[in-house]
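Why this split exists: single-chain examples teach little about how molecules sit against one another. For that reason, every record in the complexes split bundles all components of an assembly together and asks for one structure covering all of them. Below is a record exactly as it appears in the raw files.
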Amino acid sequence: MTTIPTTTFLLALALAVPATAVWRLLGALLARRIDADGVALQWVRAVAVALVAALVANIIVHPAGFLAATTLAERLTAMMAGTVIWAVSRRVELAVLLAAVVFFGLQTLW
Amino acid sequence: MKVARAYEWSFAAAGARRALSLAGLVMALSFAGFGAMLRALHLPLWPGLLSTIFVWALPGQVVMVEGLAAGLPLPLVAAAVTLTAVRLMPMVVLVLARARLPGASAWPAWWAAHYIAATVWIVSDMHLDAVPRPGRLPWVIGLGTALLTGMVAATATGYLLAGRLPVALAATLVLFTPAFFFIALLDGARHRADWLAIAAGALAGPALRIVWPGFDMLLAGLGGGTLAFLIGRLGRGRAGR
């Protein structure tokens, strides 16, 4: 494997920082003009929720890294187990923990 | 009488304490994964730590490192990073709209904006209602500062421990992130539009990844979110009559 020079890494970082910050800056500018109880904010919220839902679904359906070594059935079963536990208990921590336990169990015991 | 136009910084401590939670733990697992990734790609740790501090958005950091490893030209790497960062804009709007004091000095809002990504947004959404208005922005800054400090340590820890975990355990640690985000979204849903947005995003995201990779999250967010918002309003209008 070719090693990447540290200067290249730092140059990429020098570009990545403003490339990220610009959207936070725009968000902060927009927040000054938007009504906290208004309709526009409800739309922004729906967009943010859908974004994160899409992010989650993509990790499960199109996994990379370590998750790619597991099956879709294992990942979906764990997520559904977490959802059911949350629906019954309404406790986020418990549901996430048990989803992880189910996932680990499926991989090691199956 | 004096109107509260100044922030109450004593609430920063309460925000910082919120970092010691499942959300913080899940975030640390993700950043440890990023540290391990640096190691696997034979990249030095310290610029990776700088990216945790100054980029502070994991998908962007991962895309940057992957782009470097693939030998992509730097402008292309920057374009890929900025594409993943668009999602931060609505999150910053949502947190700041509820936390900032109109008329107070502006710099705390700029400072807080740097900390806002998915985790800080979700944790703020869960707890900000219980914080009095002048304390909200300090609360967010306390939370963000504590999380950022912890994630620098988590990135370094992941780098040092890379390759020492069994695969089943490593995969389970990675699963914490989608499991936490998904269940936190369900738990935070209050209106019909929220539920619809979760369903629309979760269905559209993976489909769009196949059709138009790179733009999938943005399209699913904008399209799914807008659809959910419109249907939610339609329903409300009818119920009102």
